[in-house]
Every structure is written in structure tokens, then in C-alpha cells.
Design a protein that fits this description.
Length: 473
């Protein structure tokens, strides 16, 4: 079922596949010393180009417990990446040595590139602030073991929801399983728009923003801003009764997922701000509210200052179990990807995959995300910017690698390539004319200057957005 698949984002696993991993993890955790025969003769490459304790060591422990071997590189400076080698070349070569690659890299979309260029299955162990799907497996496994289900639970996500990759993967998976999600970001570290956009467009979530929430929810329960995500019915994944939020919160929060500020990804401006003050500590006092009576306190770890040590002995705390479960969960995943174990996934609701038209051209915008793999100097020699056209009104493109979205200001049609129109004109992306261009003919530009640099002239529809640039024709 999962043999030879890659795990780059949580999109790569259906609910049934995740449940199959959990039931195999259950089986293995009951017999950790009896799995040595499973991966004998198999080799896993463990490539960690960002700091890691739990993820790397639990992956390596998992492979050892399965009887396999591990080769490891944990420092860019010690590999040929430091000599300017591309990720694709590294992936091709390492893929010819081993049976499975696990990679952590600071560039968002790096694991996608490794998966595209290596001949063996690839697991994303964290790519910058993008995703960390195996942490999500540990998180969901922890919740499911305790609460027996995920559907209909209320899970609060706390802290740095902007750069926390564990949070991004978890949000999509929770939505897939039909949980209600409460977002409590530190001011300035809110869930990125492109994540919310994908969540509502593809996972059927409905967002309710703070302004619409009742005062008691806004002010008493948490000191932070809130967004509430309810699973909606279009995909039939979650048939929650139509309760209002106050009523729901009275029944309590099922899990509180705390995260640390991901300072390593802060911009210079964000580093300059005194975030510590704004980062309230989750402690016994805060959890005294009756909404937290049955709440599992979770954290992907490492913690810094955001979670009080006094909670370690609290019966609600689950973060060390979460980390411990990394070994059986990863043993199950490795065995399934290597095809040494097979499981039949239970009957499930599968989210319909949306086949967006692709945008890929020799020229035009590159990804606006400075941490995207597709714009790094070593990678642009072979990677062309590639986007999914996820919306036409407003025109929205999503990078295939890091999934950041943007709305280009100007468009043109490539029809002129086929000689059908003599002059190359560009239009405002907001004009009605722009919407007439078929996806396969679409050319996008971020600015009028960029369009003109490519020899395009403004059309009568070029000025909808930027009136001061309007030129009468
Ligand atoms: C997380 C990570 O690396 O994204 N750690 C982990 O894998 N358990 C969370 C973090 O670093 O804050």
C-alpha cells in the first residue's frame, strides 16, 4: 500500500494510510525487540542539515530496531553541498547507495526535490518552515491513543504558528480527520495566509475569526488572538453537529499544542522585536480554567521558555510520550515504505485531489519566499519555477515546492507565440480580460516593469490595479 511512496507533506497520506501506520506502531510498540529481522540488509540515509535531537535519533533508533543500517550526514559543511553541489545531484547519488532517504533541510521544498531526483523513497524530516509530516504522525498517534478518535475533538494550537512546520503539517492532518482547530498565535506569528487558503479550499475548513467570537472566549480563556476552524461538510469527512463555539468550549479543549518561537527563521525585523514579552508561558495557572480540565498538553519539543517545567509532573502532560512514540511510529513508517510489511488500510473517505493547472515558464516570476529551494543559486540551474494556478479571481499561484502563494499583478497571453496576435500586450490580473486567458496560455508578471522588460506593451486593461501607471492607448 505504501511501498516506495515518498512522504513529503501530509497530503501524501490518506486517513486510512495514517491509521494503518498507527495500528502497525501499536503492534510494534508491544514487541520492540522482535523486529530485528524486518529490515536486515536495508540501509537508510539520515541527512540532517538543520539541528535535530528527537527526529534524527528516533529515525536512526527505529532503523536499528528493525535490523537495518544507517549512514548519516549531519552537517552541510561536511558534504559536497558546501562545494556548491545541487540537492538534485546529492539525491541521485545517495539514492544509488541506500534504500531510503530521510532528509531535514532549511530550504522549503528541499525534500520535494530530493524525492523528485532520487530513485528510493524519501521522508521529509522538516524542510524549513514548510512541513514536518512525521512529527504529525507522532502527534496524531498520541492524541488517538488517549482520546480514541480525532474526529470532532477541539485542538488548540499555541505559539509560533507562522514558522512552526510541525503546526503546518498538523493543521492539515487535523482538518482531514475532522477535528476543530483553535489557533492561538503569538501576535505577529499567525498562521500564514497560504496555509489558511489551502485549508479552506482543499480541506473544507470554515474559519471564524476573533471578531466574530464571543467576549468570554476572546478574553478569558486564552490571552491570545484566536481563529477557529470548524470542519465543514463538503468533503463529508466530518459531520459535526452545528454547535456554537461557546457551547463547544464549555465542554473543554481536548489538546493544547504548544510550540516554541522558531527564532532561526525570524526576519531581521522580527528578531528585533521583543517577542518574549508577547510569548506567554503555558503554566499551571493558565491551565486552571475549567476548559482545560481534560486537556492533553502537547509540545513537539524542544521547549525553551513557553512551557513551564512545573507541568512535567501534571497528569495532563503528554510531550515526553509524544517524543517516545517517535520510535514505533517511525518503525512502522519505514517498514511500510520499504515494503517489508504490508497493511490493508481501513475503508475511508479520501479527499478528492484537485488537479490545478500548472504554470511553468522560462521567464516570469520566481517564488517570492526567500527560503524556497527553487530560488537558491545552486538549484536554479536545473529547477524552473513551477506554480499551481489555484484561483482565477483573484489570480493566485502556489509554488509547487514551498507552497507559498502570491497574486501576480499582471498577465499576458502566450497566444502571440503561435503568431495569432502581432503585438504582445499585458493586462492587469484583476481585469475581466485577464480571466479570459486560458491557463495554458497564461503568462504572469509581478510588475508592469517586468512585463515591459519582456517586450510586452500595456493594453487598455493594464491599469485596473495601478491607476497611476495607466497609459491610454
Ligand atoms: C520540531 C522541529 O524541528 O520542527 N522539533 C521536532 O522535530 N520534534 C519543533 C521545533 O524545533 O520547535
Amino acid at each position: 500500500m505504501l511501498t516506495n511512496k515518498n512522504l513529503v507533506t501530509t497530503d501524501d497520506l490518506s486517513n486510512g494510510e495514517m491509521e494503518a501506520i498507527f495500528s502497525l506502531a501499536d503492534e510494534m510498540s508491544g514487541a520492540m525487540n522482535d523486529q530485528l529481522g524486518l529490515c536486515r540488509g536495508k540501509i537508510m540515509a539520515s541527512l540532517f542539515f538543520e539541528p535535530s535531537t528527537r527526529t534524527r535519533l528516533s529515525f536512526e533508533t527505529a532503523m536499528h530496531r528493525l535490523g537495518g543500517s544507517v549512514i548519516t550526514a549531519a552537517d552541510v559543511g561536511a558534504t559536497s553541498l558546501a562545494k556548491g553541489e545541487s540537492i538534485a545531484d546529492m539525491a541521485r547519488v545517495i539514492g544509488s547507495y541506500v534504500d531510503l532517504i530521510v532528509i531535514r533541510h532549511p530550504w522549503e521544498g528541499a525534500a520535494r526535490v530530493v524525492a523528485d531526483y532520487s530513485s528510493v523513497p524519501v521522508i521529509n524530516a522538516g524542510d524549513g518552515g514548510h512541513q514536518h509530516p512525521t512529527q504529525t504522525l507522532c502527534d496524531l498517534y498520541t492524541i488517538q491513543r488517549e482520546k480514541k478518535t480525532i474526529k470532532g475533538l477541539k485542538i488548540a494550537l499555541w505559539g509560533d504558528l507562522k514558522y512552526g512546520r510541525t503546526v503546518h503539517s498538523l493543521i492539515f492532518a487535523l482538518a482531514k480527520f475532522g477535528a476543530n482547530i483553535l489557533f492561538y498565535p503569538i501576535p505577529g506569528l499567525e498562521v500564514p495566509e497560504h496555509v489558511l487558503e489551502k485549508l479552506t479550499r482543499e480541506y473544507g475548513g470554515e474559519l471564524e475569526r476573533r471578531e466574530t467570537l464571543d467576549r468570554t472566549v476572546k478574553d478569558s480563556l486564552f490571552p491570545l488572538d484566536a481563529i477557529y476552524l470548524t470542519p465543514s461538510s463538503p468533503h463529508q469527512l466530518a459531520m459535526m453537529p452545528d454547535l456554537n463555539i461557546q457551547v463547544e468550549l464549555k465542554t473543554g479543549v481536548d489538546a493544547l499544542y504548544v510550540t516554541r518561537p522558531q527564532k532561526e527563521r525570524f526576519t531581521a525585523a522580527e528578531k528585533g522585536q521583543e517577542l518574549k514579552e508577547k510569548y506567554p508561558v503555558v503554566d499551571k495557572k493558565m491551565l486552571r480554567d475549567k476548559a482545560f480540565r481534560q486537556t492533553l498538553v502537547m509540545h513537539p519539543l524542544p521547549r525553551v521558555d513557553e512551557l513551564a517545567y512545573e507541568l512535567d509532573a501534571d497528569p495532563r502532560s503528554r510531550y515526553f510520550q509524544q517524543a517516545a512514540q517517535g520510535v514505533p511510529v517511525r518503525m512502522a513508517l519505514i517498514s511500510l515504505l520499504l515494503g517489508v510489511r504490508e497493511v490493508t488500510p481501513p475503508a475511508e473517505d479520501v479527499l478528492p485531489e484537485i488537479a490545478y493547472p500548472l504554470y511553468q515558464r522560462e521567464f516570469g516570476p520566481s517564488c517570492p519566499n526567500p527560503r524556497c529551494v527553487s530560488i537558491q543559486e545552486t538549484e536554479t540551474k536545473y529547477l524552473k519555477p513551477e506554480f499551481k494556478i489555484v484561483n482565477r479571481e483573484p489570480l493566485t499561484l502556489r509554488c509547487t515546492y514551498c507552497e507559498h502563494g502570491f497574486e501576480p499583478g499582471y498577465v499576458a497571453s502566450s497566444d502571440w507565440h503561435e503568431g495569432r496576435i502581432a503585438t504582445k500586450k499585458y493586462h492587469s490580473a484583476a481585469s475581466h480580460w485577464a480571466r479570459k486567458i486560458r491557463p495554458e496560455h497564461l503568462i504572469v508578471f509581478n510588475s508592469a516593469e517586468e512585463a515591459e522588460a519582456h517586450g510586452f506593451k500595456p493594453s487598455r486593461f493594464s491599469s485596473v490595479r495601478r491607476r497611476r501607471k495607466s497609459k491610454k492607448q
